[in-house]
Amino acid sequence: MRCRDLCWMVLFAPAAMASSPAMDPALAGRIDADAQAVLQRTGTPGATLAVYRDGVPLYVHAYGLSDRERKTPAAASTRYEIGSITKQFTAAAILQLQEAGKLDIHATLATYLPDAPHAKEVTLIQLLSHTSGMPEYLDGDDVETWAVKPATFAQIMARIKDRPLDFPPGTRWSYSNSGYVLLGRVIEVASHESYEHYVRTHLLAKAGMGQTITVAEEARAPAMAKGYRHTNGKLEAAPTIHATVGWAAGNLVSTVADLERWNMALQGGKIVSPADYALMATPATGSTDYGLGLFVDTLDEQPRVGHTGGSFGFTTSNQYFPKQGIQIIAFTNVGDNPEPGQMLVSATFEALYPDIAAAARKPAAGENTATTEAVRKAFARLQGRGADLSMFDARLKAKMGDGLSERMARQLSPFGEPSSFIYKGQRPDKEKNRTWNDYRIEFGPGNSLPFGVELDAEGKVAGISVG
């Protein structure tokens, strides 16, 4: 466990709770127990978790401390940085401007920003859907020292202007904060308003979001959570990304109640037309699970529409499950990966719908125990538990020695030791005449990971698929 110095706060700190009388106490207890397990496992100081149906709260519960040093309890009204959930607002603003006849999402970026990087090569809809190939301005060894200082739009663009596109536009999907910064500037050009003024006037005010502010205002805002992160296993205060750097890609601060007001307004046609909301919530060309400012994927094979947010000191998740008609929102004040915000949403959904969760964990037929044991050993090695590379083929072994081993350990070791490996079947790799073996690895409530391996004729691991 990474959080020995603070787990007592998660388990025993006072909690503020407001649940609907309609919720069975046993169900509320199950949600609470799973949430406590997530927060303990991740060493999260504080969190606010809410479940809504049609805007009506079914369960709202705050855990732990919003400020560890001041021993301030988290509350339902606590403000958190919501990071990339901001992208929903930026995308909606672009669509509003199209509805007003002020821009066309199918036009090239050059139509509005002729001097922007790759402006003639990419369209607005490709920026909205992360299919533009635009390089990432938040990459680089200096990002943490750079991102906490003020930056102009020109300075942000300078970080990517000499870099090629990551791929031909429209052919692939890759998350790009740069695209949303560019869209923020397009909003200003098309509306003749600052991005901040446009968002406040045309989005926040329309949705009735009176408690939502920007990162620039959080230092003097009441009920503001303090952000934390773990470094070398130790919890520490996290830096704050500067509002001018996160900007249209991620500079909003909100409460769970205000974000649900946004959800209801966006889904209910108060922000954009129903046709445009449907466009936001439909995977775009070049992507299988992202529309325009919204992820469109599944949890336990159930449709899910929403977005996560992460900053140096916060992780958040805002997810709608259309088949069940519920919205689950989780805000946490720790910026680690795997993200506690998303884990809380997953754990809560599975507590609400245990039969769905059980069905998703049902193993596929035809499991080979020797293959499963190879998968266990390979995953342990990728997490950095052990030095044996003999299970990998020559090509993968060479990659492991060329830096892949360290990268995978950084990505996978925070998940902790798995509790189970669930066999989910096979899929052919016709190009290589081999077969992928797919598993669902469980680590505790709300925390699972799709993982696949491809074995060669000698039983060596020749390919790895994570996520």
TrEMBL record:
Task: Check the record and name the SUPFAM superfamilies matching this protein.
Answer: beta-lactamase/transpeptidase-like (SSF56601)
Q: Show the Pfam families listed in the entry.
A: Beta-lactamase
The residue range of the signal peptide is 1-18
* InterPro entries named among the record's database cross-references: AmpC-like, Beta-lactam-related, Beta-lactam/transpept-like
Q: Locate the Beta-lactamase-related domain: which residues?
A: 33-343
Keyword annotations for this protein?
Answer: Signal
Q: Which PANTHER family match?
A: BETA-LACTAMASE-RELATED DOMAIN-CONTAINING PROTEIN (PTHR46825:SF9), D-ALANYL-D-ALANINE-CARBOXYPEPTIDASE/ENDOPEPTIDASE AMPH (PTHR46825)
Protein's UniProt name: Beta-lactamase-related domain-containing protein
Taxonomy, top ranks, is:
Bacteria, Pseudomonadati, Pseudomonadota, Gammaproteobacteria, Lysobacterales
